[in-house]
Amino acid sequence: MKVMAVVVTYEPDANVYENIKLLSQQLPFVLVVDNTPNQQTVSFTEKQIEVVDNGGNKGIAQPLNLGLEKALALGYDGLFTFDQDSRVTENYIQQMVHTFEAYEKEMGVAPALVSPTYQHPDEGMTYDLSQTKQTGYTAIETAMTSGNLLNVPLITSKGIRFREDYFIDCVDHEFCFHLKKENLVLIQSFDSLLLHTLGEVTSHRFLGKTMVTTNHNAIRRYFITRNRIAMYKAYWKGQKRWIRTDWINSWVEFIKIVLFEKNKLKKIQNVCRGIKDGLFNKMGPYPYDK
Fold first, then answer.
1. pLDDT tens for residues 232-271?
2. Are 201 and 120 in contact (CB under 8 A)?
3. Cα separation, 208 vs 139, whole angstroms
4. Residue 197 confidence (pLDDT)
5. How many Cβ atoms are within 10 Å of 207's Cβ, its own excluded?
6. What's the pTM?
7. How far apart are CA 289 and CA 262, in angstroms?
8. Across the strands, what pairs with 149?
9. Alpha-carbon distances, residue 38 vs 35, 55, 98 (angstroms)
10. First CA to last CA distance, the chain
11. Mind listing the pLDDT tens digit for each residue in 29-68?
12. What's the chain look like in SS3?
């Protein structure tokens, strides 16, 4: 299986550059799409790394689509998608490809997407996307963006792309639900570990329990809320159980914002804006004064 990767960056630091170099040691080609406005494009000495200046922040979906088109044009079978908050572990690429091929051999059909198991690099906390825990792999409904292995010929043959009007949040879930709507298979590998950071995670004690907050900024809160609403409307019939659970989780997140997070008034204002714009299909980049 011939595979490459696309990495989306925004104001990357030295750690991000180091992660990209580590990734390039496991792949023949890495496409880096930099969303940083007004910044000189960084060059790498590694020949297998190509950097594209995206001319400003165009969100996560548009760079991922650039990666899909590049993979298709160059004849790659698989595309790994990464954001800059991730670091691959040893033999990560090899293990993900092995999971893909093992599923195809056993089930007689190739998956559209293989997702890793995620772990916070500092907290050691694992984000489980599946309903059961086991070795090997299991079927899932959706996955986060970073670290996934996409079946390029299968996905592009269906005309499926990442929704650029979502801009950033929920792009991953909407993409996965679109795949599921086409009766394609998504699996999670328990043997592939990706170190990944979700926001700026902090822990808080409340009524004798530990509560974790992601501390996303106010603009991200707008996108999270707006795109959730848009996604609920689009996929309610096929994803009722997941959407009910996510709706409950959204209110838990809101309570955590009120109780623990900084800049809560601005975040609450943007949650309300997101609800309104999601209901009235006002999509695209952030439309309010920053």
1. 999 999 999 999 999 999 999 999 999 999 999 999 999 9
2. yes
3. 35
4. 78
5. 5
6. 0.92
7. 19
8. 80, 114
9. 9, 7, 40
10. 45
11. 999 999 999 877 788 889 999 999 999 999 999 999 999 9
12. CCEEEEEEECCCCHHHHHHHHHHHCCCCCEEEEECCCCCCCCCCCCCCEEEEECCCCCCCHHHHHHHHHHHHHHCCCEEEEEECCEEECCCHHHHHHHHHHHHHHHHCCCCCEEEEEEECCCCCCEECCCCCCCCCEEECCCCCCCCEEEEHHHHHHCCCCCCHHHCCCCHHHHHHHHHHHCCCCEEEEEEEEEEECCCCCEEEEECCEEEEECCCCHHHHHHHHHHHHHHHHHHCCCCHHHHHHHHHHHHHHHHHHHHHCCCHHHHHHHHHHHHHHHHCCCCCCCCCCC
**Chain segment 138-177, per-residue pLDDT in tens:** 999 999 999 999 999 999 999 999 999 999 999 999 999 9
> Tokens 């994803």 identify what position?
239
Beta-bridge mates of residue 100: none
Which carries the bigger pLDDT value, residue 121 or residue 25? 25
Contact 84, 13 (CB under 8 A): no
Candidates 133, 144, 146, 119; CA nearest to 190 is 133
